[in-house]
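Worked Example 4.2. Read the sequence first, then its structure tokens.
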Amino acid sequence: MTDIADTPAPPYYAVIFSSHRTEGNNGYAEMAERMAQLASRQPGYLGMESAREGLGITVSYWESLEAIRNWKKNAEHQEAQRLGHQVWYSSFRVRVAKVEREYGI
């Protein structure tokens, strides 16, 4: 995913997922693609940006904290989280922030 998300006028929320991967794919690429597809169909989803160069950073944008909570509770997403803890990540952090201002070209 290389595009900059086309988000609406603030306020909205960002979930920032920073991670270091373990060695090997172990099904990661397939699950990452599935999660991107699944998230895009969740109510309240606004967009996503992701980059990995050693440190991986994925930012997903959401209309509300409730939309974020509902995404976290999604059964397939919970399975991906479990595998992330056990197989794919050596370390990670999740941060949730309210976006109050946005600008760019």
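Now turn to a second chain, presented in exactly the same format:
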Amino acid sequence: MTAYAVAHLKTPNPHPDVLEYLERIQATLDPFGGRFLVHGAQVEVREGDWPGTIVIIGFPDLDAARGWYDSPAYQEILHLRTDHIDGAALLVEGVGPDYDPAKTAAALRR
């Protein structure tokens, strides 16, 4: 099942350390099949408050996403971003192609 690393970057900042992070991150993703799906795009807020931007990276599965995040290569560069950008990051598993939200609602009603 596809999984995602999602980051809400509240204070995007082109600090030199952040630029180095950007130059080095793809090499940490490659061994785990990670690829950027959304990266720093201008968000169109329709509900609520959303300061900053969003990053979404896709992985083949949750184990690959965990492996990437916990890898020595990524941990080595992580501080380059977190020292300069306030935000939150999470790993989440996606749903399959046959996912039906009505079935989820029915299960929750039971």
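Notes for the reader: The mean pLDDT is 96. The CA atoms of residues 32 and 67 lie 7 Å apart.
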